[in-house]
Design goal:
By secondary structure, this protein is α/β, with parallel strands linked by helices. About 55% of the residues lie in helices and about 5% in strands. It has 4 domains: about 30-45 and about 130-230, Rossmann fold (3-Layer(aba) Sandwich); about 50-125; about 235-390, no CATH class; about 405-435, no CATH class. It has 21 helices and 7 strands. The radius of gyration is 23 Å and the shape is globular.
Amino acid sequence: MFTEKQLRRAPSENQQELIDRMLGEAGSGKYRAVSFRMEDVLVTTPFLDECALFMFMEDDFAMFDTKGKKTFTELRTAAAEAAEKKYGVRTRVTLEKIYDIFAKLSGVSPEGRDRLMERECELIEHFSFPRECGKAIYREAKNSRKRVIIFSESIYPREVVTEILERCGYSSYDGLVVISEIKDCDARSWYKPVLEKAGVSAAKLFHCGHDVAYDIELAIMNGSKAMMIAPPAVLMERSGRLTGYIRDKLVYDFDTPKHLTLQCILGLYSIYGFDIPQNKTPLSDICGDGHMLGFIVLGSHSLCGEDHDPSARQALILNALNSDKAALEGKEDFDTLLSRHFGSFLDKFGTSGCELPLKFTEECCSATDRELFRPYMSSEALKKWGSSVKEPKLVDYSRTSLEKNALDRLADKMFPPGTKVRNITDNILAKGRKKHK
């Protein structure tokens, strides 16, 4: 994260141990070159889902009279899905191809198409920032005089990719491979040109990626060493139940502008806690970390304003957190990151749902996390709180399309995507749709 104001939270013990091992491997004399995937390893964005970016473009889209009823986000998402179907795999899709389809779906003029495409490039450049874990490994590789090669699966043109890398402080790499520029490319196209640019044998290349099949296994199968650095949002999802709880509460409209501020808060929280990967802590949803608890609970609640009337137990929780040094420092870090990454961008979207992290803490706080409150609550209050805690309903939600009819939304609510029951439900829904066509 940018360094104009340092964050108060330091890496946890297991995070520090892991980053030390990663740096040691990248700087090892066993290798003469290190390669990196750009997306989510060297560079990230403060979003849970890329569709959040599109919501910032609704006003730009409104300037063009398309006489349609669909939002920019719906049309842009549909265009990307159509492009992937048309070209087979994502790595053959470019922003220009997406906007060709978008123009047909929306009816926007060629000038409007170009202006919206330019605006999206501006926004992705603005919101992209370095992932500190990846940047530390990158610096170690450069300091150890390794050749550094970057590959990108981005849909954006090379000039946007290079601008993002420059803004994020990656200006001294030795080669850049943009997969969409490769003829007949697929998701595995990165390895051969990366190895060629590295100018070393496979055994002398060390690769850092985040996809098991296309980063890690591919490199290893070709004789290189590889290290996986999972995206922060994925690590956050696996570490606790908070996001599953929120998605269950907001399953109908979590991915709409109404809750964009909450989505962005969760995106920042994932970066704050999991930029350096860390293991899940047993019986904890926030890794037993007071800074993380203050960040997500005090930080999100601070946006609710005076309209939110906390319950008696929520008031006790807030009072306890406001008495804890680590939690207050976490709240400071929240303010720093929110201002740094969004400024006034979120002002018009409101704060709907920002009370949910506090509500989750009240209803479902894990045993390890409740121990953080012991210095500030009586034994009787903690006992009553513990006896009322319940296991939350969770939605393991994977977004595929904004266009969901009532049956789809009901299925999301009753049967989380990916479960056996949901698969059966989807088959039934699919048959129903065919009958109505």
